[in-house]
Write a structure and sequence with these properties.
This protein is mostly helical and 66 residues long. Helices cover 53% and strands 0% of the residues. It is built from three helices and no strands. Helix 1 runs antiparallel to helix 3 (46-55). The longest helix has 15 residues, at 11-25. It is globular, with a radius of gyration of 13 Å. The N and C termini lie far apart (43 Å). The relative contact order is 0.19. The mean pLDDT is 93.
Length: 66
């Protein structure tokens, strides 16, 4: 059995997933980025912190339509 699993997504699929994840935590990417930058990584929730760890720096607000 092969334990290496690779899942490939298109850029649009990635962006759509980012939008949905941001909506779930109730933040825009700009707000999430601000928490990472201005609050020194002191995020308002553990979910926001995990999301930044997952998507931070991989998208731009413009790509997400913000």
């Amino acid at each position: 059995m092969d334990d290496d699993v690779i899942i490939e997504v298109t850029r649009e699929e990635w962006l759509d997933g980012c939008r949905r994840a941001l909506a779930e935590v109730g933040l825009t990417y700009v707000e999430l980025e601000r928490q990472a930058r201005d609050r020194g990584g002191n995020f308002e929730s553990a979910q926001a912190h995990r999301l930044w760890f997952s998507i931070g720096g991989t998208v731009t607000p413009e790509e997400l339509g913000e």
